[in-house]
Structures are given as structure tokens and as C-alpha cells.
Amino acid sequence: LHSDQDKGDGSLKYILSGDGAGTLFIIDEKTGDIHATRRIDREEKAFYTLRAQAINRRTLRPVEPESEFVIKIHDINDNEPTFPEKIYTASVPEMSVVGTSVVQVTATDADDPSYGNSARIIYSILQGQPYFSVEPETGIIRTALPNMNRENREQYQVVIQAKDMGGQMGGLSGTTTVNITLTDVNDNPPRFPQSTIHLRIPESSPVGTAIGSVKATDADTGKNAEVEYRIIDGDGTDMFDIVTQKDTQEGIITVRKPLDYEMRRLYTLKVEAENTHVDPRFYYLGPFKDSTIVKISVEDVDEPPVFSRSSYLFEVHEDIELGTIIGTVMARDPDSASSPIRFSLDRHTDLDRIFNIHSGNGSIYTSKPLDRELSQWHNLSVIAAEINNPKDATRVPVYVRILDVNDNAPQFAVFYDTFVCENARAGQLIQTISAVDKDDPLGGQKFFFSLAAVNPNFTVQDNEDNTARILTRRNGFSRHEISTYLLPVVISDNDYPIQSSTGTLTIRVCACDSRGNMQSCSAEALLLPAGLSTGALVAILLCIIILLVIVVLFAALKRQRKKEPLILSKEDIRDNIVSYNDEGGGEEDTQAFDIGTLRNPAAIEDKKLRRDIIPETLFVSRRTPSAPDNTDVRDFINQRLKEHDTDPSAPPYDSLATYAYEGNDSIAESLSSLESGTTEGDQNYDYLREWGPRFNKLAEMYGGGESDKDTS
């Protein structure tokens, strides 16, 4: 910058303000030259607006008005083209025609497109030829080869270059990668790997059983590989079905009708597999279907017998004789061996054993009388099994209908409580009766009513509708003379053979009012038990329970009392041992013990029964004669001891008898080893061997010791 007022004497000073002044741009105060302090990037800012002014250095006053100017940055090619994505993903259908658009890639250049060719981009393909090409100006990638097959190669990687300066030498460039996938189209038909498939199935397989599967392979994927299977030909089209399994794309062959090895052993089917989604563009590649031959062999199985019918119905009259055949079931062995068959009845269906069956020919006959009135239908189950293999058995239902025979006489429908008023007149209706019959004739029930004998008091009039009226034949009845009349009525049916019965009406004579309402009767024709209500029954049961509880408590209390001991002692010994916690005065103490009591048994109380136990036998208490005063105490005690030994009711059955008398020394010497040890002389124990086998051990112990001592 230079001012017209600048004379070059340094009196003026230039100052700069605005965008980047002092940082990016500086001005020489003396000369006004503007300099850049660092490299300028147009992509950061394309122009800067600055203001400059010349002032007097001494007064600092402007010598000219402030001027504004713009610094514009000219672009150079310092930025290469860039793609927004480093890797692109695209797809194109296989078998596409040449030039099919795949994807468009676009690069950007930060340089100024309006200045030179710095931002002019040209696209080219570096990798991916000859399969794909790219348009230089637009960056659209297109197919370059026809009939690219996904089944041969599915993935491709294409590298695209974008170069500025119009693609000329010296231009900057950038690249990106495009991963291209060929998508599937239905250009491959299904194919069976085998021309003939063999399957086997047992003849006993039920309908719906899966025999096996067939599968045609298709190089396509997804819905383009979906296949539908069907049976198009063969001699087993009516015996088998095929179902397409969607998840596995297999054809499952199933049994449609029951198989029979004896009828046919081999079936041949022609199975076809066809694509369900066919692309019309590829019809020229041929039919999208294939076929194979499936041969099915039926295997022989030992089958159970087969009845001639699925069920049997027999009708028989209830009056047939025992052993009469009511029908025959027939069965055969379907196997080629034709084994003999044994018939039997399932007794769970004939618990009363009314029927039986001949095991050889299947004839069913009666073993007990039939009664239609008890059971009109009998549902039996007959079992047919091979004699050689009883496990192979078949059942068939047999329905036996019992036909009616007129074997039951009609009876009164209900019990009739009939009365006649004392003031009744002749011809007055006192009762209407009806009858029932257990039989069921084809023409319906028809009953006839009559009297067993002529009755002067009453008559019966048949209404011819299975009812009859009981009428009086005279005027006036007296309950004081006759309180009850018995009227026999004969009831007959009209079926063959005719059945009849006699029912007796009990007619009471009662006092009635003027309207014929009964007031009182001298005698009741029938006493009906009075019904008890539920509350009364509950009350009776409660009373019975309370009484039982009282009896049980009383018995338990009584038993507890019997168990109480008579004498309570500090030491728990037997009940009849009494403990006195004092010491006697010895033999010379005549005050503590009265010898006269022993000598005078009459002074002792009568013998009392023990309360702590129950003796097995009760004996009459015996009086022991008293001993004279001069009898020695020893003789007296010996006499009492002998009496106790011979008395079965005396102790010790549960007691302890103590005699306070020592007596003389025993004639038998002591066997104590303590005493024998102090004896100076040797003792002979040979007599122990003579005492029997029980003393052998003792004899060995003592006898052996002596012998050893002698030998030593």
C-alpha cells in the first residue's frame, strides 16, 4: 500500500486491521508492503477483507481516509479426491445382461472446481476386470460379462480410482473398494442323485407310517431351491402318499392303505420333484423338474388273525335252552402258513359267565339262563389267537340282543291303600287300579282285570285301557262287624303264552263325612314305618357316641384303680414287702415280737385275696389247726412250711415268704473254694463224675487238677 502523501521521509506510518491482521498478515509501517506470515490454505478460507490507513507518525492523525481491500486466495491442486466410504457393499442378480448397473460411487475434491482442473474427477477401475466396468464421469459400476453364474463364483472385489486434473498426468487420486455379491436366481432345476431308490416296509405298518424319504438337490438357494414332490406314475399310486417337508426339502413317502405281503410284495412309484418358483426369463434353460423311480418292498410279518367282520350282532330269545348256539364268529390267519386259530371270550366282558365259546370253530353258546328283564344287551369281546403264537391275537366286538318272551305275569303298578266308607252306596267307585308287566311285547301291553271269585261286596270293572275300577255292590258297611276286606283281583296279559297273577287289595272300612272324606278307621290295613328325619338320626347317633365314651372312661378309670399298689414304699420292691425303718432288739427282745402269734393261727385274720394280681384259680381258704403251747417253734415252722408247699394257692406265686429261724447246720459240707483252700488235706472229687453230664465240666476242673498235682 502507498499513500500519495508519503514523501519517503518516514513521517507516515501504515497500519493494518481486519481478517488475519497482525497474525496471518503484517504490514511494513514505513513502506506499506503487506506480507503473509505462514502458508495460506484456500480450503480453510478463500478470501480475507482488510482495512489499511496511513497516519502521521508524530501526531498519529490519519492523512488519508481508511481504505478497504480484499485478498483472494488462488487455488492450487493440493487435495486428492476422497470417497465417503472406504468399502462399499453391493449386489447384482446372477445371469444379468452386460451393462446392468450395480452401484454408483462418488468422490469429492476440496479444491476449487471453478479454477482450473484441480477438482475435475475421472473414475477408473483398478481391480475387477473383466467382470465389471465403471463410467469415468459418473462413477456407475456396471456388469461387463454376460451370464455370470453365482453357482460358479458368488463374491467379487472391485477397486475404483478417482483422479483429479481430468485424469491427466500429475493429478492426485483416491481409491475405494466395492464388494459385489451375485444374488441367486432360479436358473438351476432340481436333480435326483439316483435314478432308482429302494425302500422297505413291514406289512404290519399302520396307515400314515413314514416309509422313507427322497431328496432332489438344487444348486439355487432360498425360495429358488424350494421343491414340491408328487407321485406321477406307478402301480402303487393308491397305496402310498408323498409329503414335502419344507424345512429339509425332502419328500416323505407314507402308507396310504393297509399293506398285505400275501397280496403284493413289490410296488413301483415314479416320483417327480419340481421347483415351486420358476423365473420365466430362464425357461430356455429347460424344465425345472426331475423324476426318479422308487421301488418299495413289502416285508412279511407274522400277522394276527383277521375276523370276517369288524363286529357281530346276534339276536336270541330269552327262553332258549342251555348250550344253544347263538352265533358263530369266523377268523383266518392272513399269513401264508395259515396257522390254526383258537377262540376265547374276554371274561371281563362276561363277568357272570353267561356265554361260552368253542375254541375250535368260534361257536358261541349259552351256559346260563337268559333274562331280558335283567339285561337286554350283552356286549362281548371275542379273542382269536394263533395256536403257535398266542401273542398274536385279535379282538372283535360281539353284540348279543336278548329278544323278549312272555314269561312275566302282570302285577299291580303300585301299592293301593283302599278304603270304603261305612255309608257307601252300591256302585260307588272306591279305587282305580292299573298294572305293569316286565315284558315288552311287539304289539304293546294289554291287560285284563277280573275277580278270582264272585264277591258279594265288591266288583271290578275293566276300563279296557289297562286300568280297572273297583266298585261296591251293596249299601252300607260296618267297621264294627268287619273292619277289613280282602279282594283278590286276577290280572292277565294278551301275549302268548298268556301270563296272569292275582293281586289282593286290602280294603279298610272307615267312617267318612258327608263328602266321602275319611275321618277314622277301626283298623289299619297296613302299618307303615314312621320315617325319621335327618335331625333325629343325628341326635340318636350323638347319644350313642356319648354313652360309648362314658363306658370307655369308666372302664379305664376302674382299670387304673386296680393297678394302684397297696403299699407305697420308698424302695420299689414287690407290693407285699413292707419296710420298717427301725431295728429290732435281737433274739432277746420279747417286746418287739410275740411268739404267741405264731403258735395261735386263730388270732391271725382270715386269709384275704391279693389285690395286686389275679390268681388263675380261686381256692377256699383253709383253717390251720392251732398248735399247742408246748410245741417247739422249729416244729411249728416246719409244719407251716409243709402246708405252704402243698397249698397251690399259697405263695410264692408272686411273693416272698420269710421265716426268721436259722435252724441247725446243714449235713452237707460247704463247696466254697474259700474254705477248701484252707484245708490241709487233699480232697477227692471223683464223685462229681457220677453225678451225670451236667457236672462233667466241674469234674474235669477239679479232677484234672488233682491228677496233675499227683504227677508233679
In short:
The chain has 712 residues and is mainly beta. It has 5 helices and 37 strands. It is elongated, with a radius of gyration of 67 Å.
Please give a structural write-up.
This protein is mainly beta and 712 residues long. Among the domains are: 12-72, Cadherins (Immunoglobulin-like); 87-183, Immunoglobulin-like (Sandwich); 196-299, Cadherins (Immunoglobulin-like); 306-403, Immunoglobulin-like; 411-520, Immunoglobulin-like (Sandwich), CATH 2.60.40. 10% of the residues lie in helices and 32% in strands. The protein contains 5 helices and 37 strands. Strands 30, 32, 35, 36 and 37 form a 5-stranded mixed sheet that branches. It has a 4-stranded mixed sheet with strand order 6-12-11-8, with no helix packed on it. A hairpin with a 4-residue loop joins strand 33 and strand 34. The chain is elongated.
Question: What would CATH call the architecture of one domain?
Answer: Sandwich
Radius of gyration: 67 Å
Helix share bin? under 10%
In terms of structural class, how would the helical and strand content be classed?
A: mainly beta
Q: What distance separates the N and C termini?
A: 161 Å
CATH class categorisation of one domain: Mainly Beta
The coarse overall form would be elongated
Summarize model confidence as the mean pLDDT: 82
**CATH superfamily heading of one domain:** Cadherins
Task: List the total number of helices.
Answer: 5
CATH topology of one domain: Immunoglobulin-like
GO molecular function: beta-catenin binding; cadherin binding; calcium ion binding
InterPro entries: Cadherin (IPR039808), Cadherin-like_dom (IPR002126), Cadherin-like_sf (IPR015919), Cadherin_CS (IPR020894), Cadherin_Y-type_LIR (IPR000233), Catenin-bd_sf (IPR027397)
Function: Cadherins are calcium-dependent cell adhesion proteins.
Membrane topology: Single-pass type I membrane protein
